[in-house]
Each structure stands twice: as structure tokens, then as C-alpha cells.
Amino acid sequence: MISEILQTLPQVLVDGLTLGAIYAVIALGYTMVYGILELINFAHGEIFMTGAFVGVAVLFFMSGAGWLAVMPAILALLIVLVVTSLVTGVLGMGIERVAYRPLRKAPKLITLISAIGVSFLLQDIVRFITEWKRGNYIVTGPQLFDSKIGLDFSSIWSHFNDAILKTSSVILLVSAILMMIGLDFFVNKSKWGMAMRSVAQDRDTAALMGINVNKVISLTFFIGSALGGATGVLFAMQYGTINPYIGFILGLKAFTAAVLGGIGNIRGAMFGGLLLGVLEMFASANLQKLTGGVFTAEYKDVFAFGILIIVLIFKPEGLFGKAVTEKV
Amino acid sequence: MEKLKSFLSGNKIAQGVLIGVYVLITSLALYLSQKSVVAFLLLLFSLLLLYYTQLSNRLKWLLAGVVLVGVLPWAASSGPSYQSYMEVATLVGIYVAMALGLNIVVGLAGLLDLGFVAFFAIGAYTYGIFATGQASNFMPFGEYPLSGESFWLFILVGCFAAALCGVLLGIPVLRVKGDYLAIVTLGFGEIIRIVYNNLDKPINFTNGAMGISSVTPPELFGMQFTYPSQFYYIVLGILVVVMFAVRNFEYSRIGRSWKAVRENEIAAQSMGIHLVKTKLLAFAIGASFSGMMGVVFAAKQAFVDPTSFTLLESITILVMVILGGMGSVPGVILGAAVVTILNLQVLTEVTNWLNQMSMEGAISFPEALSPSKMQRFIFGAILILFAIYRPQGLIPAKNPVFNEEELKAHAAKQTGKKSSVPEDRAMQA
Amino acid sequence: MVLKKSLAVVMASALSLGLLAGCGGESGGSSGGKVIKIATQTPLSGGSATLGESIKLGAQLALEENKKKFEKMGFKLQLVPYDDQADPKKGVSNANQLGADTAVMAVVGHLNSGVSIPSSEVYEKYNVPMVSPANTATDVTDRGLKTVNRIVARDDFQGPAGADFAIKTIGAKKIFLVQDKTAYGQGLADAFKKAAEEGGAEILGYEGITVGETDFNGVLNQVVAKKPDLVFFGGLYTEGALLIKQAREKGIDVPFMGGDGLDSSTLVEIAGDAVKNVYYTSVAADANKTPEGQKFASKYKDKFNKTIESYSAYGYDSMSVVLQGLEAAIKANDDKLPERKVVAEHIRKIQDFQGVVTKVGFDDKGDNKFAKVYIYKFEEAKYPGKQEGEISK
User: What keywords are annotated for this sequence in UniProt (chain A) (predicted)?
Assistant: First the structure.
């Protein structure tokens, strides 16, 4: 049994990290907004989904105009990423302006409900537009990269099997890491990042120090949503097929990842995402073997949520978070 | 108009007469024209009007009882659509009870629960498993399916099973607060669904995704309950119990502690409210209503499977509570009725009508825009609009107004009993 | 106070509305003789809307072709399409609505067995006969309901037929099963597993995936480790296509096999070239193979400007069966409209009806004696696949 688990381990790790990278980048969006507004932006998963659809639409447009054939795939991807990020970034700002800003002083529960509403609304709008234009809301986009790379793990240790890595996974991993490092640098080193952190600490004092709080919050939503949209494009690249309901489950998992790492903490979100991806992949590949057939791969979500609940009980601030005492 | 208004606002008899006339006309309309959904809805609307009259509470309850027990079934019974009206009315009743349960958790105690449908599932499966041959797979004794008479006992069993699960969920979950609680309960709801979907191995408890079919119908004195018109009365009976319970809890010591916890946990705690106990009670009581209705649902559908208990269902119940008004009992009832009727009757009717029209070629209508597909859109819009413009819901919650002097005098009389003082404080907090 | 004012206004308007509605209720459909409604109940929205709509359109075509005949007999046929959203609760609620409407004489539906089973309990209460163009689960007819019929094969015929083909023709000895944990997928995979074990094949694994997810690499890693020579998938095309695609990317080149849930053009659209070497059993024949089928396809195309899906012709045949039973019942009742119970009896009595794609004759449970299972293979990325075999009882 152990040898079988070891054999597949390299491939499980590769797949888990790919999935984890998606979780991680979406988790960044949750964590940024939460860090500043203490609001779970439930709609973030849908922004990710919208990003996937916008990306595929741009790709369709480009291939329709014949541009795809003449430009290198990487350039095409860059264009799609930039356009999609802009669109979803603005969308995120708009959502904040319409659905969250009027509620900034309201109880948290009300804002959360508004966020769930936005999430439903976006799902249905995207569904409607896609179904109207294409007759079917399940869309398969053109593929930019379809080669794959063999990784020779067996030469490292004879117990391992070789693994296969898709080119799109490499691109996904590289872009995700670039985005994470870029964001970390932006928040910790730039002037705007400093403004963001100060708003997160104390909104009123930040305002007194001459920071335009509304602008900073808008910027936060823009960056978070742009990252989410870009991840959507990468997701569409990786899996090929998208539908309007992918955002909800993925968003939920990404949020779980953010909480796991300590919500509000950017590095924690990255770590939580990758950890969750690997754990989930490991569970679905090995649960049956480990439990002698009692639990099958379907229990992987139970496994993921179970871990979340356990972490929250014993370390409510998450793995990387700092405990906050509440003042009355 | 103005005169009429001022005449009406003071004159209880006039109000009573008008309500009576209204009920009479709408019920006659329903009686005479069986297919008119509008008449059915208007008759239900009379209950809302009744709520706004200035009649005494006792009389209101009595009138509502007369309309629900007698007039509505009578008016609907004459024609072919009887059962379909009763089906809608029964489902409304089921959702009202669940929304009232969630209202305790979300509205009164302020704990956002996004996995509430799990308790409904627990109730449904409790009856589903024992009222079919399913139980013989793992029960060493007894003969299954149990007879239809056990249904009445199972309403209580479902109630306690759900309450117990509410407490079990509550114990670990209550360490987390606010937004975290929402996500953990959501996870819990999904876990329950996945577990039910997979519990056909190693021992077949729930028959997995295939669901449990041919659930034994309830039986009383040899009479079998199979039609919606019969379940209507079961639901009505449970609803009376639920409403009585909610009414009593709301203004009791525990109800006031819920509200105190909702407004500020730390302040409530420092006023001597036991946080864990209070929250667990909210979870348990809220869950128990759902559990009871789960049993009824399983018996009514004669079929239980995990697809009836998805996250969307939890959100739907939440929409009912928000729409009606968090913490407001009449509001939540109204919210549940509106959402259920919208979902089952209005959207279906409009869609059917549009389909008919486009089939006859009268209009061309994109399939994608069909109203029954727009459920999420409508719910989403309701949630946002209400959150922004009317967070208190259709009928906002009212706190009873007390005369301070009277209370003080009352407290002075009972100086021996110390408990009354913090209670009053807790209410103000 | 505002409420008090509006109270009066609302009440006044409500009264008039109620009266209006009361008058308006019955006025429709008095011209052209007595109205007979035939309902369809299929998912018209949601993931399987394509299939659900194709059934509705097929049934609509059959109904419209028979309109004249029934008009001569003094009845006006009308189709009432219901949308069950592939949701059992919605199905039951609709069933109550249409069962309550005494003008509805029969139902053509459903697509999903999970919806069909609870809904048919309601039909039985109201004696509404139902003819299913697509349900394969054994429980649909095994409960012995008098009103429930189907014109397609059962899972315990489809599964074994597939297993037999897999072992004898493809030569599979080691089989890995994946299913989507829905009533349909599990029923089919269980039937296949049982038959494959009996046929002497070794079952290397039996795993579930989650509907709505997109990454199935975890389960596929198990497949890689076990090295089967056939993978069977019980489930629908959305997940099936992704599974096949990701399997091929992982280098799993062995044949895949699935049930009628894979029988959709969307499968090819999503999976692309990965669809090669995929077999699927289907209870639906390829209508384009026979001259009658081709005629039907062109009529369908003319009328709705859509190409036929796998179940279009079955919707058509189900409706034809219903109308034949209805006609016989009317004739037996001195050209007057009979009770629904009688219609149900006459539908069950049908023994040799020749439809466009299938011959229909019901046994005493309501299963079609002439139902066949067809086996298709995708040799290129084009829908439908090539028909490889045809198995009858």
C-alpha cells in the first residue's frame, strides 16, 4: 500500500500544486478585502468565474479575427490576461461601490448578505449572456498550449513513478507565483501598499493622516478582482471548459484556504491555498487505500472542511494569523 | 378617501366587517373559478390584511385559524386544482416553519447559519430510513418498514435528532465568531449532504445517491395520508406548535438573552448571560423545527434523496428570513410564503404562459431569459436591494414597549427575587 | 398610518382583481371541441436542458401531426410543457399541478430517473399515464405502478450489455469504474460492475467524483497506478468529457466506456480529440440510420431549425404511443372522453406499435419488450459515434 502511494506521489504533488496555485491566487483576493474591510467578499469566486468567461470571449474574438494564428501563444495569453484583469478589476470596483459601500457602517451580517446576493446575480447574468449568445452555458475555449512535459522522478528515487506536467500548468504556476510575489511586494514596499495597511489597521486614523480611504478601498477591490479575473483565465487555460457555477465551489475552497492560512495575511493565503490543493489531491487519490475502501474519493471535501473546522477550533486565527482581542 | 381612512383607522368593527367581506369575496371567487391562481393568492393575502387590522390578538388568531382551517380548503376543494393548491399551501407551511427556525438562529441570536438545510435533511432521513426497508440493513432487531402510525412518533424523533445535531454542531463551532461561523456552518451543511450521498458503503444506511423511495405514508386510525390536502392539516398542526413556541421564546428570558448576544456578545456576557448555553439553545431550537418538517417532507414526497438538500436550499431559507425581516415573526412568515409561492406558482405559471405564447408563435422569446431560470437572479437582486434599502425587511421586528414606572414598581414588589433585575437590563443592552 | 390608507386601496383593488380573475379563469379553450392536454415534463433549464428540450420538441411534432385526426373526433389537442429542472422537488410539485388538471390525459417524461421516481408516485395517485422516453433506472417500473411505462431499455439490461461488449469484443479483463454519485450514474455503474464480475473481469477500483467539479486528477492518479485496460464511467457528459480529456492528458490511452449519459454532442465539443477510443452504450438508436428516421430528422429540422438529439425521436415515439392509447380509449368509450384510468389501461395494452426508432410493446410492468441497447464508438471527434453493435433481449 505504501509503495503504491509513493509511486503516485510525484504526480499527486504536481496536480495538487497546480490546483493549489489556483486556490492560492483566489484566496489572495479574499484575504486582501478581509484584511481591510473585515468583509467576506462572497462574490469573489464569481469574479473569478466572470474572468474565465471574459478571457474565453476575448480568445474567441481574437481567433475569429485571425490574430491567434499569427502571434505567439505567450503574447496572446498576455493580452488576454491584461484585458481580463482590467475588466474584472473595474467590475470589482463597481461591486464595491454599489453593493458594499452603502453598507460600510451596517452590521456585518447585512454586508455578508449583500455579498451573497451579488454572487447569485453575477452567476445568473453570466449564464444568461452566454446561453443567449451561444445556446449553451458550458463553454469550451480555444486552447493555446497543449503540449506536456514528462518529469523523470523515477531517476531521483526508484520508488517514484514519472509524472506528467502540462505546459499550461507550468504557465499557471509561474504566473501564480509572479502574481503572489508582485502583490506581496506591492503591499509591503509601495506607498499605496502602505496606505492599504494603514487603512486596515485603523480607518479613521488613516483618514486623519490624509489617506483617501475610499480610494484605497477601491484600489484594494480593483487589485483583488484583477487577480481573481486573471486566475479565471489561467483556469480556463488549464481545464478547457468553464460554466457559470465553477466560481462558487472554487471560491468556497479558496476561502477555506484563506482561513486556513490566517485570513488577512497574504503569505498565509498563499500557503493555505497550496496546502489545501495538495491535501485534497492526496485525499482523492489515496483515501480509499488508507481507509481500506470505507471512505472513497468523494469524501475529499469532507476531509477539507473537516481540516478547516479543526484548525478554527484549535487556532481560530489560522496557521499564520495573529490573534486579535476584541474591544468593547 | 381621507374620510374612509380615518373612519377605518379607529373603527374596529368596520375593519372586521371589511376583512370578512374580503375573505368572503375572494373565497367565493376561488370557489367559482377553480383555475384562478390570482384568487388563491388574494385569499392568502387576507391573512396579511388581518395582521394590519387593529383587532385584538386573540381575535386575529381566531380569524386566521378559521381562514386556514376552514375557508381556504373549502374554497379550493370544489374543483380540479384542489390538490395543487394544497400542495403549494403545504410547502408554504413547511418553509414557514423552517424560516421561523432559522429566524431564531440568525434573526434573534445573530448567528449566521449557511448550512441550515442540514437539519431538514436529518429529519427527512430519520423518517425515510425507518419507514422503508432501509433500516433492516443495520438494525439488529425490529421489523421494517415501520407502520404508518409511527409517523406521529417520528415527528418528535426528527425534532430531537435535529436538535441534538444542532448542539453537536454548535459545540465546536461556537468557538468561532461572525464570518467564520458562516463559513463553518456552510461547510457543515455540505458535509452532511456528502455523507448522506455516500453512506451506502460499507453499510447501506441511506442508499446513497439512489435515494430512498416508497416511504410509508402516515396513518391515523386506519386512514392513510397521501394527498397534499391531508398533509396540509399535519403541517398546520405543527405550525401552530412552532408558532406558539416561537412567540413564547421570543419574549422570555432566553429570547431576550438571544437579542442581547446578537447586539453585543461581550456586553451580554458581562451582564451575566451564559454565552455557550444561549447560543446552543438557539441552534437546538432552530434545528428542531426543521427536523420536524423534514419528517413531514419525507412522508409527503414518499422519496428522500440528497439533491433536495443543497446549499441553494439553505440560501433560499435565508432569503425568506431577510426578505421578511430578521427577528420579526410575522415578517418571516410573510417572507417564507412570498418566496415559496414565487418559486412554485408564479415563476412556473409565467414560464408556462410564455412557453405557450412562443409555441403559438405570438412572441419570440429567448429561451435563456425564461423566468424559471432566473431564480438566482431574482434572489440575488432581492438580497442586495433589501440589504441596502430595507435591511429590516418587509415587516420589521418590533420590540415591546414597557412602561418604566410599572416595571420599577413591579421590581420593588419582588425584591426577594434578584433575577428580575438583570433580566430587564439584558433587554435594554 | 400609510399602511391604513393603502389597506383600503389594496382591498378595493384586490376585490375587483379577484372578480376579474374569477371571470377570466375558464374562458380559454372553449373553441374547437373539448380540450385534451398532453403534458411533457423534462428539464427545460439547467445542465441537461438540451436533452430535455429535444424530448419536448419531438413530442410537440408528434402532437401537431395528430391534431387533425383528433379534431375530426371532436377533440382539440394541446401540449403543455412543464420544466422539472432535473429537480425531484420541482417534478413532484409540477406533477401535482398537472395531475390536478383533469384536462391533462397523459404525460411524456421525464429525462432523469431521479425525478421520475417520486413524480410517478403522484401520477399514480391521479391515474395519469406516463410514458418515459429516457428513464433507464430499474426502480422506475419495478415498483409495479399501473401508470408508468417506458419505451427504452433498463439499466440492468444496458449495464450488462455494455459489460458483455467490453469483455467479449473489446477484450477488457481489468476494469476501473468511476461514477458521479448521482442516482443515474450509480445505478448504471452498479449494474455494469455486477455483470462484469460475473463475466470474469477483474474490478480494479470503484470511485466516485463530484458533479460540478472540474479537476478529476486525484481519481485519475488511482487509475494510472492500477493500470486497467478499460475505464467505465457512469455519469453525464459534462463530467465525462472532462474526465476523458484529463485522462488522455495523463497518458491513459486505454478505451473508455460509458452509458447513455455520454450520448451528447457536448461531449465531443468539450473533449475534442480525446474522445477517440471512447465507447458508449445507448438506449437510443441513431435515427439517421433508417429511412423513417431520416424523414423524421428532416421534418424536425424544418420545423424547429435544429438538428435532432439522441432523444428527439424517442420523445416523438412516446407521444405517438400516448396518442394511440388515447385514441383506442376514446373509441372504446363510444367516442366520448374516457377517464384517465382507462387511458392508462389502453396505453399499457399496446403490443406492437411501430415508431420511428423503436417498436413498442409493453409488458405487465410497463417495460418495452422490444427495447434495444446500442453500442457506439467515437473513432473521430464527431458526434454521433459509429454504431458498433445492437443488442436486443
Answer: Amino-acid transport, Cell inner membrane, Cell membrane, Membrane, Transmembrane, Transmembrane helix, Transport
Q: Residue B211: pLDDT above 90?
A: no
The phi-psi region of residue C277 (left if phi > 0; otherwise alpha if psi is between -120 and 50; otherwise beta) is: left
- pLDDT reading at B295 higher than 90: yes
The pLDDT of residue C28 is 38
Question: Are the C-beta atoms of C263 and C284 separated by less than 8 Å?
Answer: yes
- What's the rounded mean pLDDT across residues A104-113? 82
Residues C88 and C234 reside in one and the same domain: no
Domain that holds residue C164: 156-282+374-392
Do C65 and C40 sit in the same domain of this protein? yes
Q: What percent of chain A has pLDDT over 70?
A: 95
C243 and C103 assigned to the same domain = no
Q: Report the predicted TM-score, pTM, of the whole model to 2 decimal places.
A: 0.84
Residues C355 and C380 reside in one and the same domain: no
- Nearest CA-CA distance, residue B220 and chain A, Å: 40
Are residues C160 and C268 located together in one domain of the fold?
Answer: yes
From residue A285, alpha-carbon distances to A12, B139, B202 in Å are 7, 33, 19
Domain spans of chain A, in order of start: 2-314
**Average pLDDT value for residue range C311-316:** 90
Per CATH, the number for A2-314 is 1.10.3470
Closest CB from C210, C222, C242 relative to A301: C210
- The verdict on a CB contact (< 8 Å) between A15 and C270 is no
Residue A240 grid cell = 478547457
- Residue B198 to residue A116, Cβ atoms within 8 A: no
Assess A64–B contact: CB distance below 8 Å, yes or no: no
Contact yes or no for A36/A218 (Cβ under 8 A): no
Give the SS3 label for residue C34: strand
Whether C11 sits inside 8 A of B49 (CB atoms) is yes
Residue C7 belongs to some domain of the structure:
no
**Is the domain of C136 the same as that of C204?**
no
Contact B179 A255 (CB under 8 A): no
Domain boundaries, chain B: 1-80, 82-339
Question: Do both C245 and C108 map to the same domain?
Answer: no
Kindly state the DSSP code that residue A97 receives in the 8-state scheme.
Answer: I
Residues A306/A311/A317/A320 CA torsion (nearest 10 deg)? -110
The distance of B414 to chain C (nearest Cα, Å) reads 39
Compute the residue count for chain A. 328
Whether residue C29 is contained in a domain is answered as no
Q: What is the ipTM of this complex?
A: 0.84
The reply to whether C111 and C244 lie within a common domain is no
CB B89, CB B344: distance < 8 Å:
no
Q: For an interface test with A, give the residue of B106, B179, B181, B200 to mutate (most A CBs within 10 A).
A: B179
Q: What is the mean pLDDT of residues B360-385?
A: 75
Residues of chain C numbered 233-272 and touching chain A (CB < 8 Å): 238, 241-242, 245, 249-251, 266, 269-270, 272
CATH code, domain carrying C258? 3.40.50.2300
Confidence class for position B428, pLDDT limits 50, 70, 90: very low
CB contact under 8 A, C218 and A148: no
- Does C12 fall in a domain? no
How many angstroms separate the CA atoms of A40 and A33, rounded? 7
Which residues from chain A sit within 8 angstroms of residue C223, using beta carbons?
none
